[in-house]
Amino acid sequence: MDPQHTAPANPVVPGSISQVLNPIRGRLIVAALLAAAGAMLTLVPLAVIAHIARVALADSGIAAAEMGWAVALGVACLFAGMLLISLGELLAHLADNRMTHHLRRAIVQRLSRVPLGWFSSRASAEVKQAIQDDINTLHSLTAHFYTTVGRAGGAILISLIYLFAMDWRMAIVSLLPFPGFFLFFSRAMKASEANMQAFSAGMGRIDNAVVEFVNGIAVVKAFGDSGKAHSRYRQAIDEFAQAFIGFTRPLVASMANANAMIAPVAVLSVVLLFGTLFVAQGWIAAADVLPFVLVTPGLCGPLLLLHYITHELSHATGAARRVQALLQTPVLEAPAPDMQQSPKGCEVRFEGVGHAYDAEHQVLTDVSFCLAPGSTTAIVGRSGAGKSTLARLLLRFFDPSTGRITLGGVDLRHLECSSLYRHIGFVLQDVRLIHASVRDNIALGRPSASQQEIEAAARIANLHERILGLPRGYDSVVGEDAALSGGEQQRLSIARAVLLDPPVLVLDEATAAADAESEAAIQDALAHFAEGCTLLVIAHRLDTVMHADQIIVLDNGALLEQGRHGELLARRGLYAQLWAQGGYSHSEPRVVPSC
Length: 595
Description:
Largest sheet: 6 strands, mixed
Number of domains: 2
Oligomer: single chain
CATH superfamily of the largest domain: ABC transporter type 1, transmembrane domain
């Protein structure tokens, strides 16, 4: 891919969470502050209870009116705190909904601009994980993390202030178990972070293995060895089990110690022990120990809550990185308005074209030839010679690494995609249909086409009668009540191209998935449709292109031979060898006509 026209890939994105949360950060902070204020107010009743109990134990007497006001204050603060927490949660969830909507739209918009060849190198589970699973994982970060931190932080802060206000000496000794908790907790977090990447990678391998197995289950049942078919899935499970053990083993001992340090019984024991000692020494009154008995064990819950959401934060960090990496996927840049050009004619030229998928995988090298208007050009060669890559470069599934391809004298990179696909149509061996009606599938490139135009295209593709035989005709939905064979799907793809009526047509082994009857129908459809087109045909059977105007022979990504059928046979080069190996007769009928 041309680095001048694509952004660099970035699989690990620094500050991913910050970038993902940036549009809603303000709302999340407000939600956290509301939750913190609410948590503080909900603890006021404990202070009221402690106050009433201290007064009662001191036998100093308390007026009924004063007690009534104290109880009323506690109840009012409790309900006000619950209201503020609810408002914070509502605001956080609204922010999460906004972010989810924004991310999914941004990902779809990004993927609509990436090179089509990018999808062939990605497992569908990988894209699904980022769009669906990872964004769902971010829900815990946006909808719950900030408000949980707010509630826990608010509760801890107001509790500390209250305890130190009661007696700073007793507050210090009551909090002695908590430094030990943070020590073990920090060790657990470091161990978790060290193994989180392997844990996430293992989950990704399981997803990919499941999708791969399900997609190929029909072939496995017919021909495969079930043990071998399951081997990759079993391997992914075993590797994930090892990663899970490595992820959890360092956590178990550290978190067990951390939780034991701040168990409510342990904290309460410390409070009572030092409280008894302080009372015996005469440093405080027995009633003054009560606030510490009520409040200090309550600190355990918020601290444990912080531990759990910190663990969720680790998952959210990985999810944010994958989402952000997907949002930074290299795209085929659209030409600037002042750079856009319109092709003059439909002549296609490959000028010194080279392409490499990566630094070590050079597919094409310095390929140059011309497709004259109205002519048929066939690309032949051994498997892996670069034939399909050449066709996909013309369709701009990706851009060449070196050289350029022009249409009507205009570099493809200076054409808008909509303009490019109005001029170049294609019928590939790998047919893709969307989950929609047959009508919508045919009219995918021209949604405004009339029913008469759609039916005319289907007739040319020899598919009209078959569609009428479906339960709802053209309204039948592919995958529901429209079960089409491989050859019928190919003919639907031809009807889609016919409706566009492009001046240049690319055929990549269009009959590969068809049976004998469907192949004859496809050949007949192409013969009618191809008249007057500039054809580029990728052929594996040489007898189908022996009448082409020119034949390009590729070998190891380089143009080895070029000429007509008879000329190439006379040269006794690679083409003649391939012809001889195929055992073809010179009287074979042509399949793709010369235009």
